[in-house]
Amino acid sequence: MESDRPRFIKKEDENNNSSDSSGGGTGATAAAATVGAATLFSMNEQEDEDVRNASDKSIPAQDNQFMLLTKKLIEVRNILMSIDHNEALRLPSIVVIGSQSSGKSSVLEAIVGHEFLPKGSNMVTRRPIELTLIHTPKSKEEYGEFPQLGLGKIHDFSHIQQTLRDLNLAVSESECVSNKSIELRIYSPNVPDLTLIDLPGYIQVTNKNQPETLKDKIVELCEQYIREPNIILAVCAADVDLANSEALKASRKVDPLGLRTIGVITKMDLVEPEIGSAILRNTDYPLHLGYIGVVCKPPTNRNNQKNITSALMRHEEQFFRSNYVYSQRGIQVGTGTLRRKLMEVLEESMAKSLFSIVGAVQLELEEARYQFKVQYNDRRITAESYVAETIDSIKHNFKDFAHSFGKPQVRHEVRTMLEQRVLDLCAELYWTDSKIVDLTKASADDLYWQYKLDMSSAALTKSGIGRTSTQLVVDVLMANMEKLASMEPLNNHPDTSSKVLNFSNEILRNKFHTTADQVENCVKPYKYEVECSEQEWADGVKRSIILLEKELESCDKALRHIRNTIGKKKLRAAIKYVLDAEKEEAKRVQARIKDIGEANSEASTHTIPLAALISSVNDVTEEGDVEHTRLHFNPKVLERAREAIFLRDRSMILKYRLAALKSRQCKSPESKQYCPEAFLNMVAEKLTYTAVMFIQVELLNEFFFQFPREVDNRLVYDLDRKQILTFAKENPHIRKHLELQERKRKLEEVMEKLNYLVRRQRDIEGRKGPANL
Ligand SMILES: Nc1nc2c(ncn2[C@@H]2O[C@H](COP(=O)(O)OP(=O)(O)OP(=O)(O)O)[C@@H](O)[C@H]2O)c(=O)[nH]1
């Protein structure tokens, strides 16, 4: 194997060893990794596959020795990123900074082996991209994931590129940069475990569409990220004077000795070897971690789906091999060297951060445990159990309602509606009839009253009882469902609440027509004849007396209210005024009709149309009214006075009718035409009985049966885990509970991983100790 490796790689190994000593690398273990990693990056298409297979074995074998810390801490970092955390919980990342077009994207893509970053002149990197590379030695799959978006695995890197472009361009051109980062994870057997942050490139001048402040905004954003413990990857193009490098200027401010800055010189192919090698000698602007020269121009004849590393590295290798100066001691070149360097530096940095992160996580965990105890008494819940409880509670509330809304309640609703109809019919056909006082004295075969009774009975039976009574019950049911939907637990779930209302409505709508038709068919005989037993009649009389007494009571109450608001004296005067005005009015109308009649007969050739006649009469009336009103009373008082007159009259007639209903005349059904109120009441009772019977069977029972089944079918049946969680989190109390519980669980998981790493690190140091002695 050793002899098969190209000369260039051998030289790199040497270079690497030398840089290890100067850069403070991890010695023998780093050298072991160097062999694995360097081999990995020196390949043609066939070798690519071979080496990948080899790496499958070699990299896990190194896990116990090298890079395990980075790998495990990257896992920790990913968990911490998924919970709200403070600065103290930050683990080191490699932050890539550099001027626009310095070659940042090309370097990152060379490390990943795929083109996946958005390109273009239109400043396409507007948000930090937090890139986590996860080495997966046991798998051949290469894919990306955007954990914030939940899009799942994306195997097509051009799709990743497009998604990144869309996310970046979502930041408007006027805003230009945003500090809201995009998280991207790439899983591949060909990438090392690294965390990298790509930032917008520094700019020299803003164009006309960009805000004046853009330059400062980018500087500020980069400053946020290049703080400790992060490692700075300062990217500079070889063909631009280092003195002008914005990246080096920025890094020097926060890391003057270059202890955590790696200089990456791109585009080495664009400068003469002497110039290039001079930059890499690290003398003019020295960095403790030194400079690495790379050529990352992506090959033109690549296939998008294939890993570009091998082609890129072959090209790069040829270039550096062709110039002997790049083989000199102390000069670091090549993407492979860069990858190794990043792995080593990150591992070291992770090791340095380990103990501080343990302390920070411990504090955070203690706080989460304390809060969980205090707020929830350590009670654990799951989204699933919450959904189950909620559904039970909806069904339970519904059952309570179903128990409280049975036949008696439906009967009450329908009867109240029909009794109101009876009252309206009596008022319309009897109580406003001036002959009503003669009713008790009329002969039994008086056609006038017989006809009235038939008419009112027909009006009651033919008024679409099926539809109205069914609709009435549907309305009452829906009103109750709305109440149910607005109370606990549905008040926390607006979508589910409207779903419940929708399917309740749907069940009732589906049953509406059959119920209404059944009721209508069954009340049909009453449209022609209503038979009545002595008992039914007696009940009808009793109920009508109660009904009229209630009506009388509400009339008296309304009258009392008017009297109290206006004052007894004033009301009496206003009533007198209204009655006098009405009398006057009647007289004036009579006189005017007479005048017009006379004028009409005189001018027989000229006919006045009836409409004109009425309008001229009205004109007189209105003028007169207005005049009087203005003189004496406020129109509102007059209005109340008219109401009081109506109530007084109605009250009188009700008393009169009550006396009739209580008299001997109304004792038997034979004298029904003398007691229309009792007769209509008896008919209403028969209609109620029939309607309720069918409404209960066809509508109510069906609704009570179907509703709980629909709750299962429509609310729970095909909920996936994500929907269950979303549902549970709609309830703010449950969301808080679940979030704290999740936070505690994740911190415990992190703590467990960290404890293992601490033990391991102590072991390593313990083993090193005696040897060092
Ligand atoms: N010749 C040569 N060209 C390179 C090299 N690396 C990058 N380029 C080219 O330089 C240009 C800019 O490279 P990018 O990688 O997009 O630079 P960037 O810093 O990410 O640019 P912005 O995202 O716009 O800030 C592209 O046309 C690359 O093809 C290299 O090593 N040699």
Automatic annotation (TrEMBL):
Among the Pfam families in the record, one is: Dynamin_N
Q: Tell me where it mainly resides.
A: mitochondrion
Q: Which CDD domains match?
A: DLP_1 (cd08771)
Composition bias, kind Basic and acidic residues: at what positions? 1-14
Record keywords, A-Z: Disulfide bond, GTP-binding, Hydrolase, Magnesium, Membrane, Metal-binding, Mitochondrion, Mitochondrion inner membrane, Nucleotide-binding, Transit peptide, Transmembrane, Transmembrane helix
Every copy of the GED domain together lies at 669-762
Residue ranges of region Disordered? 1-30
Q: Which GO terms describe its cellular component?
A: microtubule; mitochondrial inner membrane; mitochondrial intermembrane space; plasma membrane
Q: Which reaction does it catalyse?
A: GTP + H2O = GDP + phosphate + H(+)
Gene Ontology MF, one: metal ion binding
Q: Locate the Dynamin-type G domain: which residues?
A: 88-355
- SMART domains under this entry? DYNc (SM00053)
**Can you say where in the cell this protein is located?**
Mitochondrion inner membrane; Mitochondrion intermembrane space
Which E.C. number(s) belong to this protein? 3.6.5.5
Which InterPro entries did the record assign? Dynamin (IPR022812), Dynamin_GTPase (IPR001401), Dynamin_GTPase_CS (IPR019762), Dynamin_N (IPR045063), Dynamin_stalk (IPR000375), G_DYNAMIN_dom (IPR030381), GED_dom (IPR020850), LIS_MGM1 (IPR056495)
Asked whether the keyword Flavoprotein is assigned, the reply is no
Q: Does the keyword Signal apply?
A: no
GO biological-process terms attached to the record: membrane organization; receptor internalization
User: Know the name of this protein?
Assistant: dynamin GTPase
**What species is given as this protein's source?**
Rhizophagus irregularis (strain DAOM 181602 / DAOM 197198 / MUCL 43194) (Arbuscular mycorrhizal fungus)
